[in-house]
Amino acid sequence: VSLTENESLHTSLSLLEEENDRIREEAEAYKSLAEQAQELAKILNGVVSDEEEDHPEDDEDKEDKDDAHHDDSHNADDDADNQQPDSADDSVDKDAIKADE
Questions:
Q1: Above 90 in pLDDT, residue 29?
Q2: What's the average model confidence in pLDDT over 81-97?
Q3: Distance CA 25, CA 35 (A)
Q4: Any idea what the Cα angle at residue 92 is, between residues 87 and 98, rounded to 5°?
Q5: How far apart are CA 23 and CA 31, in angstroms?
Q6: Residue 45 and residue 22: Cα distance in Å, rounded?
Q7: Is residue 69 classed as helix, strand or coil in its secondary structure?
Q8: How far, in Å, CA of 35 to CA of 29, rounded?
Q9: What pLDDT shows up at residue 14?
Q10: Residues 81/87, Cβ–Cβ less than 8 Å
């Protein structure tokens, strides 16, 4: 019985050692991938920084377009309010409610 248990434990130990070696190899592979990812991130950050320095007016144009879009949507909301005849009375009532609070 002891011999069988010893063989079983030895087999289990061998399997665990093999699994441990496999996990170490995976960890080394992941570590290598992580290092490569960091290098790529540095390269991409450098490229993005260079593009921003070379074309700062692109960012300003984009901001201007965003501002124009927001102004248009705000004006559309104002137009919708102006089409409703009771909207002026509602705004007065809202102001009165706020004053009471």
A1: yes
A2: 50
A3: 15
A4: 125
A5: 12
A6: 34
A7: helix
A8: 10
A9: 97
A10: yes
